[in-house]
Design brief:
The chain is an alpha+beta fold and 285 residues long. It contains eight helices and 17 strands.
């Protein structure tokens, strides 16, 4: 399987595989299955030297799961492009949209225009974090659930007190299970995990801090320094990502969501959007 695409561990990384493949090409069913098996192993694959349009990146990402074809879930992450999102602020470790019932299954990012040395993306494996927990801590958290709230601030953790009327929140198992294998992983992210259900606030904070020490330990982090043409695809639920503030240089990445349901399929309009729509309706009337 690994021989088919020359897959090798990413040099210096604690997890993830570098794969030799031109994702703009056509793959047989057997080749697609081989890529899925590689992806299943660590939850992160790196492809170098890609040059994909958004449609081609959607097609390539679909090898690893269903993709959302709408612009609301696929866009540019950029500090220079007018239509780019997420600007230049710090992003704490997170999974994408954990505050809805069905967070994205995965994601892919392709470097379109990145200056050398501009902010890397850091990835943390919740698979490995679970495996490295002491057995008594594994037993202590298995069966517990955690509340995730909508992120409100860049660069700091969102708490319950940051929530506003109309904001979504969702409760998920603290120990997730990989589809198809049942492999466990931690599901609580620094950015938006607000509370472990059933614990007092001090108890919850203490437990989350203990879990985060394992999850974000230096030996559990892969820091990817982007080159133009890099494409990284990852399991959104089991591999978290983060970035430092972008203080200089150009950084434009093309992002695709791998998901059964998009954000707007699951997120009712917040109250501000509702008010805006009401004004449009009243004006039209």
């Amino acid at each position: 399987m690994s021989e088919l695409f020359g897959a090798q561990p990413i040099p210096g990384a604690p997890f993830g595989l570098e794969v030799s493949a031109d994702l703009s090409g056509t793959f047989s069913d057997a080749e697609k299955e081989a890529l899925r098996k590689l992806f299943e192993r660590d939850g992160l694959l790196l492809f170098r030297g890609q040059s994909l349009t958004m449609d081609q990146q959607l097609d390539a990402s679909e090898i690893f799961g269903p993709v959302m074809r709408g612009a609301m879930d696929n866009y540019l992450v950029s500090n220079v492009e007018e239509e780019g999102l997420l600007g230049d602020g710090e992003l704490l470790f997170h999974v994408d949209i954990p505050f809805v019932p069905a967070p994205y299954l995965g994601g892919s990012l392709q470097a379109l225009d990145v200056d050398q040395g501009v902010s890397a993306t850091r990835f943390a494996s919740a698979f490995r974090a679970w495996e490295q927990l002491p057995e008594d801590l594994q037993c202590r958290i298995d069966g517990k659930t955690v509340l995730h709230v909508r992120g409100r601030e860049l660069g700091r953790r969102t708490t319950l007190s940051d929530s506003q009327p109309g904001d979504n929140c969702a409760v998920h198992a603290l120990v997730g299970r990989q589809e198809g294998t049942g492999r466990p992983y931690l599901f609580a992210c620094m950015d938006m995990a607000a509370l472990v259900i059933g614990l007092s606030e001090p108890e919850s904070e203490s437990l989350l801090e203990e879990l985060f020490r394992h999850l974000y330990a230096p030996e559990n982090i892969y820091e990817h320094h982007w080159r133009n043409g890099d494409l990284v695809v990852w399991n959104n639920r089991a591999i978290q990502h983060a970035r430092s503030p972008i203080e200089r240089g150009r950084r434009t990445l093309q992002r695709v969501a791998i998901a059964e349901l998009g954000y707007w399929d699951q997120s009712p309009a917040d109250l501000k959007t509702f008010d805006d729509l009401q004004r449009v309706k009243n004006k039209a009337a």
